[in-house]
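Data availability (excerpt). The following record was deposited with the supplementary files.
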Amino acid sequence: MKRILAVVLFSLLLAFAPPPAAGDSKKLEQELARIRQKFPGDMAVYMKNLATGEEIALDADRVYETFSVIKVPIMAEVLRQAGEGKFSLSDRVELKPADARWPSGVLYTMEPGLQPTIRDLLTLMIILSDNAATDLLGDKVGRANVTKFMRSLGLEKTTIEFSDVDWDRVWLGTLDPRFRTETGEGVMKFPFGKYTGAQVREAFRKTIYESNIYFGHSTAREMGKVFEWMAKGELVSKPASDLMLSILRKQQVNNRFPRYLRDVDIAHKTGDGQPFIANDAGVLWINGQPIVLVVFTGRHRAETSALHDAVARVAALVARHYGAALAPDFR
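Predicted structure:
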C-alpha cells in the first residue's frame, strides 16, 4: 500500500512540476547533436514543445525522402475533401486485383471484392502503413491536390507526385526491365526467388538515390508544422485533427519513437526504406506538454536494427528531458 501511495505521489509531483526552463533545451540539443555526429548517414531532427515554445532544429530545412510519413498529408487531404462534401468517410471502395500492392499492410493478402470504407483505408494506411490503401486514397483525392494543400499551408517543400506502384515499377524494373510498364496486378507477380537478397537490396538503393522517382519529399521542420497544427486542432478542422490524432495513436509500427518510452501518450507515423532510411514523426504528450518530434534519415550505412535504435534514442532523450520514464535497457 505504501508503495502504491508513493507511486501516486510521484506521478502527481511530475504532473504539477513546472516545465524545464527554456535555456535547458541547449543541453538536449547537444545530446541530440552527438547522436547525429555518430550516425553513419544523414539525420534531421526537429522538436518543438508546444507548451513552452522550445524548439530544436538540426538539418531541419533540408529535403529528405519521407517514405510513408507522407501518408499523413494524404490523410489530411482526404479529410479536407470529405469535409467539403466530395465523399463520405463511410463510403465503401471495392478492392480489385489491380489494387494489390507489395507490403507493408494487409490488403494485398485479401480476396478481391472486399469493400472497406474510406475511414478503414485511412486507418490501414496509417497504423499498418498499407500501400494498397495509400494508392486507393491517393488516386481518389489526387496526389497533386495533396501537394497543393501543403502549399496552401505555406509548406513549399512537402510534395507527393508518384504512386506506390510507380515506385515499384522503377525498383523491380531495375532487376527486370519488363516490369517498368507492368500493371499493378502484374507487379505483384514479380519473381523475387530468381534474385538474391543483395540484388534486391541494391536495386532498392538505386531506386532511392539514382532514379528520379520518390515516395514523398519534405523537411523535418515542415512535417513538424503539420503535426503542430494537428495537435492544436488547426489542421483541416478541429474534428479532422482529432480524428487524425486518434488514428495515429493506434500506430502498430512502434520500433522507433516508442521503443524506450514508458507511459507516454504518442501519435506518430513511421516511414521505411530500410536499411537506408527509417523515419518517424509525431506528437508526444509528456507531463501535459505536447512535444512535436520529427526524425528523418538518409544514406544509412549500417544495419536496420542500428538505424531504428538511433531514431529511438532521439525520442528517448527528448522524453527524458521533459521528465518521462524510460525503459530499463536505455543506456
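Summary of structural features: Residues 78 and 103 are 22 Å apart (CA to CA).
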